[in-house]
Amino acid sequence: MARIIVVTSGKGGVGKTTTSAAIAMGLAKKGHKTAVIDFDVGLRNLDLILGCERRVVYDFINVINGEASLNQALIRDKNCNLLYILPASQTRDKEALTQEGVGKVLDELSKDFEYIVCDSPAGIEKGANLALYFADDAFVVTNPEISSVRDSDRMLGILSSKSRRAERGEEPIKEYLLLTRYDPERVKNGEMLSLDDVQEILSLQLLGIIPESKSVLTASNAGVPVILDEKSEAGQAYADIVARYLGEDCPHRFVESKRGFFSKLFGGKK
Amino acid sequence: MPNNLPVLEFKSSTFFAPILILFNNDIVGIEEALEKKVKLAPEFFKDSPLIIDLSEINKHSKEIDFVQITQLLRRVGFFPVGIRGGNEQQNQQARELFIPIDTVRELTNLIITDEKNKPEVAQKGDSQAMPATKQETINAIPPRPVYVAATLVTQPVRSGQRIYASGDLVVMSQVSAGAEIMAEGNIHVYNTLRGRALAGVHGNTAARIFCFDMQAELISIAGDYKTSEDLNKQTYRNPVQIYLQNHALIITEIV
Description:
Largest interface: A-B, 16 and 18 residues
Largest sheet of chain B: 6 strands, mixed
Helix content of chain A: 40-55%
Radius of gyration of chain A: 18 Å
Largest sheet of chain A: 8 strands, mixed
Structural class of chain A: alpha/beta
Number of helices of chain B: 7
Oligomer: heterodimer
Number of strands of chain A: 8
Distance between the termini of chain B: 50 Å
Helix content of chain B: 25-40%
Radius of gyration of chain B: 25 Å
Shape of chain A: globular
Strand order of the largest sheet of chain A: 3-4-2-5-1-6-7-8
Number of strands of chain B: 14
Order of helices and strands of chain A: EHEHHHEEHEHEHHEHHEHHH
């Protein structure tokens, strides 16, 4: 049986798709056969981040409707042969997703894969609800700002009440916090919520902090998951997160600013 | 995969049932009236559940045999499912027939009957040779308290979630901003309260709110409320209790 991970947030633009791509790639790189599914039907993005948009023939909705087999729709990643992508449909909307259809696809994937990463769309509508419904673990992606934290809190409420595990009275979904776009310097200046501020409201198990980094945008535009950029802080942070998730002991980094005395004095560039 | 689906589940729900108020203890008259009514709309009354209200009869201290009236109703085609406003003897008869007693209504009725009819009952007791001791024991029985179990919540109450308790509500975890907790009784939050807390929602002015770390968006007792803007900054982030005094919400620190 595969472990199903939902990457969710409520709010848009916080880094769900970036995180989904990085985490899925990270798990595959560690030797686990992983599938990543784009639930953002109508606003297909995941294939762009993973650089496979030119190889999309069939999509998630085709599989749900029985118009294509799962093997026809799954795209094998060119960087790692243990990673497969199930892209969203760009021409349909979220109404095309059905609980039964999603359940069937996940069941079939479960037979063959170790991890299934569900990239949730923003909002709390059908697409987001179906992305989390079957999950075993939830990665709650949050930016250190108040509206993102509030939306994550709302999402946590939905995770604990509207998932299959909740409906069946099983062990609840395991929830992890991923704090993205964190800038210790701005936290110090009081311009950004600190990790403690966020945790005071959410009180979740922290899986990792991803520092604000230019490499994220560069990687997205190049269609290469940022986790493959081992020199970048964001890439290292995602690698840490995958290691921590797999049970490795890995101290948290990027909480404190590492800029030295001189750069602070002269306000050097980041 | 272990099959740990629950076998059953309790849910609260509201049902509608007609109430039959009896004004007279004339069984023959009641039967005639009922049959007339049923004839008007036989389909509507067929197998209809029914709650029998005896408060009017008992107000005028008329004797009625509850067993007899139940048998009559069943014969006409009703399902008696409850009794309200019955006296001790009628309630006992109802229990033996496995018919539930509406206790809330029973309480209020008992009090009204006691206050209004005490002298009258005493006089009648004389004239009808009712044993005085029995009358006394009936009046001496205190109204049975209505016990509603407290609701316990151990998970965090997240933004957008609502919790309603028909008795007291005890929350062991935090209540997030944008969450709403409501109780007909008291509210206890042994953690941070950031959302809305409404106690005594059915008008219980004696209800109180207790919380460990007061950061609420809104607090209300029996409809009187304050928003965070009006809350005293001194009690902010402190353990407090909130109660109602002459329609004013009083917030005091718990030392």
